[in-house]
Amino acid sequence: MATSYTTCPNCRTQNPGTFQNCTNCGAFMGVGAPMQQSPQMQSKPVGADKKIAAGLCGILLGGLGIHKFILGYQQEGIILLSVYLISFIIAIVTCGIGTPLILIPTVIGIVEGVIYLTKSDEEFVQTYVIGKKPWF
């Protein structure tokens, strides 16, 4: 007697026909429509957990570029941190005349933090985690 197989609609793995869940990804493969999750059980997209941390760090510590490091943008984080430190040194050397330069990376961080927090989880993940958009 030949064994029947069912193809998983999620990952296309061949599974024995008697299995209700895929042996590879665990997706439901039962007869009929797949089971719908209740709104409480729906999970956030992968990477959405970084949204709040990056947004708050952007607003509170924007000039230091910590929000960039949280999202995995090391080069952009180093750029923001460098600009902030150079502006700080210029402000000290010029006895405060160069202090407004510190506002440049700070304002960039605040604007990016607000943008992160106002996007939906899906839009945030698509733009900054998958799309790797480093600025604004």
Structure description:
The chain folds into 2 domains: 1-31, no CATH class; 50-130, no CATH class. The chain has helices at 50-61, 66-70, 74-93, 103-118, 121-130, and strands at 5-7, 14-16. By secondary structure, the chain is mainly α. A two-stranded antiparallel sheet has the order 1-2. Strand 1 and strand 2 (14-16) form a beta hairpin.
Dominant shape? rod-shaped
Largest sheet: number of strands, sense, barrel closure:
2 strands, antiparallel
Biggest sheet, strands in spatial order?
1-2
Question: What count of structural domains?
Answer: 2
Q: Which spans of ≥5 residues are poorly predicted at pLDDT below 50?
A: 32-38
Rg (C-alpha, Å): 24 Å
Which percent bin holds the helix content? 40-55%
End-to-end CA span? 61 Å
Number of helices: 5
Overall pLDDT confidence = 84
Number of strands: 2
Helix-strand topology string: EEHHHHH
Structural class: mainly alpha
Beta percentage is: under 5%
Secondary structure: elements and pairs:
Layout: E1 5-7, E2 14-16, H1 50-61, H2 66-70, H3 74-93, H4 103-118, H5 121-130
Antiparallel strand pairs: 1-2
Put the structure in a nutshell.
The chain has helices at 50-61, 66-70, 74-93, 103-118, 121-130; strands at 5-7, 14-16.
Task: Please describe the structure with a list of short key phrases separated by commas or semicolons.
46% helix; 2 strands; 136 residues; 2 domains; mainly alpha; two-stranded antiparallel ribbon
